[in-house]
Structures are given as structure tokens and as C-alpha cells.
Amino acid sequence: MAKPQLDELDLELLAALIADAEVTNKALATRLGLAESTCAHRVRALRERGVIRDTRIRVDEAALGFPLQAIIKVRLANHTGPKVTALFDALVGIPRVLQVFHVAGVDDFLVHVAVQDATALRDIVLEHITIHPVVRGTETQLVFELRDGSGLLGR
């Protein structure tokens, strides 16, 4: 897949949108010294090229009743393509799963979850993960605190 070519204006637009995804086109254009039509066209082009994949709302998991977060490490017994793909699809479909990473190393998947309590965490592991025959083992780590990094374009 060809890497999209980004110029300095594209990077400025992306940095501004990463900092505030809800900014209006008018405010974004003013901030960057662009005509509104140019700004709208450039943002639309970034979306069409797949550089901007989506816009999401971030919620406070604890405020929704899911204060306990964990990373569940999953190790596989074998690594055949269809079985790995099937497990990946199953993991992302589990309720309360925030993200799933397919990784290299000792573990094969990292599953980030938010749940209401330790019982719900146990149930995810026992009822949704270890039931798959391809899963050899799991290890669960509680998340004490989560902070955002500086991101791709810094802050």
C-alpha cells in the first residue's frame, strides 16, 4: 500500500484536529490562515485518502459504571492463520473490550477491557477467552492509571 504524501499544511491540519476534533471548519481555517473552502477541501481529501480514519468520542469508563480496567495477555497453542483470525474477530466482539492488539513476543494478543468489578473481569476471561481451543493461557494485569502519550505529531 502506497504511503500517502503529506505536506506541511496537511500536518498542521492534522495536529489541529488531533488537539480538537470538534473544531468547526471556520475556526480551523482562521487558526491556520486558510480560506474556508480550502480548509474543507483539504480535510475532505485527508479523509478520502484514509489519513483521517474516523472521529470518535472518548468516554469516562468509570462514569458509565466500568471503573476497573485491565490488560489480558493471551497466549496461543498454535498460530494457524484462520484460527488466529477467528480468535481476533471473537476478541473484538466481547462486551467491554476497548481494544485488542495482535502482537509479537511471548504473548499473542493484548485485550484492554473496562468492567464493573473483579467478577466481571473473571467472567470475560473464563467465559469469552479461555473457551477457545487455540488459547493456551492468559495473564491479567490491572490498570492503575492510563494517560495519553504525546501522539504522532506531538503536542
Could you outline the blueprint of secondary structure elements for this entry?
Blueprint: H1 8-19, H2 25-32, H3 36-48, E1 68-76, H4 81-92, E2 97-102, E3 109-115, H5 118-129, E4 135-143
Antiparallel strand pairs: 1-3, 1-4, 2-3
Overall description:
- This protein is of the alpha+beta class.
- The protein folds into 2 domains: 8-48, Orthogonal Bundle (Arc Repressor Mutant, subunit A), CATH 1.10.10.10; 62-143, Alpha-Beta Plaits (2-Layer Sandwich), CATH 3.30.70.920.
- The chain is built from 5 helices and 4 strands; from the N terminus they run H-H-H-E-H-E-E-H-E.
- The chain has helices at 8-19, 25-32, 36-48, 81-92, 118-129, and strands spanning 68-76, 97-102, 109-115, 135-143.
- The protein has a 4-stranded antiparallel sheet.
- A hairpin with a 6-residue loop joins strand 2 and strand 3 (109-115).
- It is elongated.
- 14% of the residues are buried.
